[in-house]
Amino acid sequence: MIRSILTTAAISLLLLTNYYQTPSQTLNEFDIWQLKHQKIYIGEERIYREAVYQANKQKIENHNKDETRTYDMGENQFMALTQDEFISLYLTQVDAPKLEQQEQIEEIFDTQEPLKFVDWSSYTTIKSQGQCGSGWAFSVSNSIEAWYGIRGGRNITASAQQLIDCDVYSKGCYQGTNYNAMHYAQQVGLMNSMSYPYIGQQQGCRYNRGDYRINNYQFVGREQQTLQHYIQNYPVSVGVDAQNWQFYNNGTFSDCGQNINHYVLAVGFDFGYNWILQNSWGYGWGENGIIRLSPGNTCGILNQAYQIN
Ligand SMILES: *[C@@H]1O[C@H](CO)[C@@H](O)[C@H](O)[C@H]1NC(C)=O
Ligand SMILES: *[C@@H]1O[C@H](CO)[C@@H](O)[C@H](O)[C@H]1NC(C)=O
Questions:
Q1: What pLDDT, on a 0 to 100 scale, did the predictor assign at position 115?
Q2: Which atom of ligand 1 is nearest the CA belonging to 249?
Q3: Contact, 30 vs 36, CB < 8 A?
Q4: Is 72 close to ligand 1, i.e. is its CB under 6 Å away?
Q5: pTM of the model as a whole
Q6: Which residues in the chain come in under a pLDDT of 70?
Q7: Which region holds residue 200: left if phi is over 0, alpha if psi is between -120 and 50, else beta?
Q8: What pLDDT, on a 0 to 100 scale, did the predictor assign at position 6?
Q9: Which domains does the chain have, with CATH numbers?
């Protein structure tokens, strides 16, 4: 892994210096960003990408100057993408069922019961989905990993790639939903991710079977209190509107609509009732891979909240 990164970095450096044909020239900040994120843009494309990079830098600076902001933006792997490109590469459009179409769960819990702040983030790891709209698959495979950890103290990995390849209700990197992926995990089960590794693009279904099955799953959204209650037991896979998440770095986010276009894993809420969500854009994004949303139905978090049980 390290070796391949170093090799890629060395190749990029070579290409960059060749491109300039003046090896002694120092690298500018865009070159350094390219090296760090293993990107190589040349010719016309480079000119365009560098301009996008500069525009994004300006956007981040302006945002972070605003005294009233509740979150900071930061530079990351998405710096050379316009917002439209970011949306089309990383997010998916989901024809989400309307709230009223979803099955009402029985409110069996005592609403007077005091809420305990909870954070399950240590039960799974932050993944990197790459250039594939597979947030829906990671949201579910991570929720299975956490479920096995919390329930049985078993440290497992569950294959997101299998969902991309084999869940016939999804369109691989282009579309998928958490409830269909959970249905697959219930009917078929998932392999571990060593046996069925992530490649970040759709291929033919390699194994339509797996050791990690779930008993059932249910909708636990709609009301803030419902999600808060159920998240005390296990993390919850949630659909979100991530259209403005491109440069989120830290703090409490609420700059969004409720049009679901991405899935993440809700692992708890903090003392201020802010939702704690694990994303699949690597540890370099957000607060070590995590975003915090303000309370309530921020970014539509209550619209497609499904939990394994
Ligand atoms: C983001 O993190 C920086 C560095 O820790 C901190 O100074 C800043 O206040 C944080 N921003 C927000 C909005 O929490
Ligand atoms: C689970 O196993 C992985 C790989 O062996 C390890 O990195 C991780 O720390 C383990 N996590 C827990 C919670 O034991």
A1: 79
A2: 1
A3: no
A4: yes
A5: 0.88
A6: 1-24, 94-113
A7: left
A8: 47
A9: 2-69 (no CATH), 83-308 (3.90.70.10)
